[in-house]
Each structure stands twice: as C-alpha cells, then as structure tokens.
Amino acid sequence: MERILIKFNLAKKGIDESRYDLLFVGKYRDRKSVTNRNMLNKKMIGVIDQAIEFDNFDSEIGSLLPINTHNFKKIKKVIILGMGNKNEINITALCRIATTASGHLKKYKKCRTLFLLDIMSETDYLRSFMESVNLGLYEFKKYKGDPVEERRLSVDIYNSKISIKDFRDLIHNSFTVSSAINFARDLVNEPPMFLTPTKLSEYALKISRVSNLNCRIFDGKEIEKMGMGGLNAVSKGSEEPAKFIHIRYKPRNSKKNIAIVGKGITYDTGGLSLKPSDSMRTMKMDMAGAACVLAVMSAISVIKPNIEVNCLVPTTENMPGGKAYKPDDVVNAYNGKSIEIINTDAEGRVCLADALSYAVKLKADEIIDLATLTGACIVGLGPYTAGLITNNQHLGDRILDSANKSAEKIWQLPLDDELKNEIKSDVADIKNAGSRWGGAISAALFLENFVGDTPWAHLDIAGPAFIEKGGTWYPKGGTGFGVRTIINYITNS
Ligand code: BES
Ligand code: MN
Ligand code: ZN
C-alpha cells in the first residue's frame, strides 16, 4: 500500500525551470504550440514543438505525450496534456485532464512537478484541478499485502493572479471535497462483511463528532416502533441489525431546510427473490447513495452552507434468512401507506419509502435522494450517467446545473404518469415492482408516493456509482459519484 502525500504550491512569474523534475504543459488541438509558451525557454519550446509534430499528437482530452528532455536544466521529462479545442474547454474537460495527469504522477517516487495550463488563473478551474489531482491518486489497496510506503509529491501550479491567501483557502477547500469523495469511495469498496449497517452508523457518528453535527442512530427496535415498516421488513432476513441514520447540520440563519437521503443497502443478495451469482457480485456497492450523503456531511462544516441539511440513511442488508420478508407480504411505510411486496429484490425503494416520509415529517423544503436503485437505469443510460427524476423542474434544473459544474453526468428521465398502472396493487395502496419496461421510472413513481407535495429529486446512481473496469478518469470500483454535484448544489443554494 502506498500513501501519497501531495503538496500544492503557487508558482508565480519568473519560473525557475531548474527547480523541477517534471513539467506538465497543456496543448489545445486548434493551437499550434503549447500553452504558456512565453514562460518557457526557447530551446525547450523547440524540443516540444518538434515532438508534437513528429508524434502527430492529436491533443484529445485524456491523451498525453511524454517527452524525455535529457535533463534540460533539471527537468527530466515534459508531459504534454491534450486539452481538446480551446473554445470547448470546461470544468468537465479540465477534471479529466487533471485526473489523467495525476494518474501518471502516481508512478513517480519523488518528484517536483510544475503545471503550466493557461486556464488555471480562473478560481473555479484551479479548485477543480486540485480536487481532480487528489482524486486521480486514489487507490483502494487496503487489503493487499504490500508494505506501506509513504511518498511525497510536490506540485507547483502556475497562476499569476491569485493571492497566496486565496490559494491556501482553495487548497483547503479542494482537499476537503476530494477527501470526501475518496471517503465515499472507501466506504463503497470496503468488503460487505466489514461494512455492515452498524459500521456505517459508526462512521456517521464519527463524522458528526468531528464536525460537531447532531447525529441520531435509530436501532432495529426503534425503527419498528416508529413505524418504519419498510426498512424493518427488508432487514428481517439478515442477522445484522438495521439502522436509521439522521445527521443534522443547522447554521444560525438557515434560509431553507433540505434533506439528502441515501440508499444504504450494505449488501443486496436480492433476498428471497435471490439474484443469480453474476448479478449479485458487486452488490456491496448498494450503499453508494449512503456513502455519498455521508461524505457530503463529512465536508459540510468546511463548506458552511447557509441552509439546514438533514442527512437520512436507512441501512440494512437484504438477505434471504429464515425470517426474511416475502413476495406477497404487505408492509406499512412510515407515512402509513401499505406496500405489497412483489419482488424482494426491489428493496431499495421499500427502505427509501420510510426515509422519504421521515423527510416530509421533518418539513424539509426540498428532498434529494441518491440510490443505486435499478438495473434498468443502467440499461437506459449506460454505466457513466445517472438518471434524474423529479416532481419539480426548477429543482431538477438546478441539480443538472450543479452536475455540469462538477464533471458528473446526469440525464433526466420523465416521471411518466402513464406508468403508474405498473405499480397499482390489488391488495395494498401500491406494489413494489412492475414490469421490466421503464423500470427506472416506475421505481421513481413508487418513491413519489412518499414525498407528498415536497419538491423532490431522485438520482438513480446504479451505473456511475461503481465502475468495475475503471478508466482514465474513473477509479476501479467505487467512484464517489454524486458528492461533487450535491456539494455544489448546497454551496449554491
Ligand atoms: N441494487 C439493485 C439495483 C442495481 C442493479 C444496482 C445493478 C446496481 C447494479 C436493486 O435493489 C435491484 O435489485 N433492482 C431490481 C428491481 C427489480 C426487481 C424491479 C433490478 O433493477 O433488477
Ligand atoms: Mn435489489
Ligand atoms: Zn438494491
């Protein structure tokens, strides 16, 4: 295992090339040479231009061109970062460029690095850049036998405009956000035998203690007594006790009160409607919604939004034990509505029913839930995009906007009334599963029964929460999807 410690420094005018081992410099597709040309030595520019031409470097985002500079001054290597077309550069592109670069940085043992990118003088870009460098260094190696090795990387960023004080604040802020995202990744990647509902609650308490937040954990008995019949039913097949987590952040002059709700199934076997082995694997990620909202809370005392945020997590395993809830059962959710169980594998919505009703009872002005809810959403949108379904377009638009500023892909699906027939029940108020068609939408229509008139947005993160193969800018496994978007959302609320 490696622990990589990264230190960002500000490089100002009059760069001393002899201080660096490695130089990253940007190149737009529609520009002949690299950015910040005037800052580099003429000889160096010559070498760079020649390499770009010789290699026919296409400057695609995520591509890079390493050039050995034969110890020019001290610099041993220059890496050209493809930046796409100049007029198409945005936060998403920059995040990808930065994660690509830091993925490359990973391999150096000791290295003083300088980044020269023309857009870094804009604060939002600079912040996202530092965040993404930290994200790109993420690895989950906790259970590998390799000895722990500590490595220190020093990364200088050229920016002539920003003051040292603002730069320090940005480092602090970006480090808070990237640590939150990496924390969410850790929670998702942790094997399910360790990350139980009890363990998740311990993390919730720890986060709350550190940040001085109010935290309540309801245990199995309280869950039952409160009338959370959904969560209670789902938990019955498991030996692990269920929990309901409520963390509250309340600033003095809060403008409004929002609830963020995360699905916390620490393992989804499907229950009695057991999943086939191939679909069961990776179901440790079924608490990614919970990981996301807890990660947001871990950063909230640094972000200090002036709105009240209530974080709600219903958490349990979904197991086929002797006491397991069954298809044909009828359970009552926290708001009193009865639910006929058709399929015990549609467990997320049954637990969320209680959590959403609880948010309504808290008189939340807005509710946002994040859940790895349906395979159908992955079929529809692919593994890299989350589905957004909302009963309030204004809220939906603001979330889409936050996602755009966060390098996260979210696409809206309709809350199609006509599909309501799918979840009509003969014996109860509603049933928990319909036909295959429009499965992500009928799941949302189910949830809609528990939010009353409250503006509500549902994010189905089943795809992007966990990327098995990884990729240039996604780590393998848990991605921490949603943390950036929600943090952005509450920051701008
Ligand atoms: N946790 C799953 C959804 C899921 C599937 C997440 C694949 C990530 C990857 C959820 O609890 C589930 O099993 N949903 C069922 C619903 C069906 C039984 C109506 C599904 O999508 O098949
Ligand atoms: Mn399931
Ligand atoms: Zn599930």
What do you see in this structure?
The chain is an alpha/beta fold and 493 residues long. The protein is built from 14 helices and 20 strands. Strands 7, 8, 9, 10, 11, 14, 15, 16 and 18 form a 9-stranded mixed beta sheet that branches. Strands 1-6-5-2-4-3 form a 6-stranded mixed beta sheet, with helices on both faces. β15, α12 (393-404) and β16 form a beta-alpha-beta unit. α2 runs parallel beside α3, α4 runs antiparallel to α9 (288-303) and α7 (229-235) packs antiparallel against α10 (347-361). The longest helix has 26 residues, at 164-189. Residues 268, 286, 343, 345-348, 372-376, 378, 433, 439, 462 line the site of ligand BES.
Short précis:
This protein has 493 residues and is an alpha/beta fold. Helices cover 35% and strands 23% of the residues.
Question: Count of helices?
Answer: 14
Radius of gyration (CA) equals 24 Å
Unique bound compounds:
ligand BES, manganese (II) ion, zinc ion
**What does the average pLDDT come to?**
96
End-to-end Cα distance: 39 Å
What is the total tally of β strands?
Answer: 20
Strand % is: 15-25%
Low-confidence stretches: none
The structure class reads alpha/beta
Helix content: 25-40%
Q: Name the shape in a single word.
A: elongated
Largest sheet features: 9 strands, mixed
